[in-house]
């Protein structure tokens, strides 16, 4: 992979069926990395895209998700920007009982991303109003 690479920004309709295009584009862009790393990045990228669609205005009619990924010699960062109006920010669920965790089908994705990434976080597009959030995850690349 070419170090210090910034891939072309992409814009996807905010629809879950578009996940196949997100995954395909990620796999194409990550050509040259080992299969395990690519699988991890595609899995986490899929989760970040799905969260944008499920929890924000990106999933409403006409909504979009913007993507950007970049790499240097040792890390790769995936970034997904939503249309806002979700009313919340990305957060790890921490207040569940054991029974609730055993029965939970949702809200495990960020736990997975926290486990598989070096770091993850988010930033609002502006300090006021809910016009969008950029959520990112950074991964260490092995050579």
From TrEMBL:
What Pfam families does UniProt report for this protein, alphabetically?
HATPase_c_2
Give the keywords, sorted: Kinase, Serine/threonine-protein kinase, Transferase
Coiled coil residues, start to end:
none
Which GO MF term does the entry hold, naming one? protein serine/threonine kinase activity
* Domain Histidine kinase/HSP90-like ATPase residues, every copy: 16-122
Task: Quote the protein name from its UniProt record.
Answer: Histidine kinase-like ATPase domain-containing protein
Q: Which organism is it from?
A: Nocardiopsis flavescens
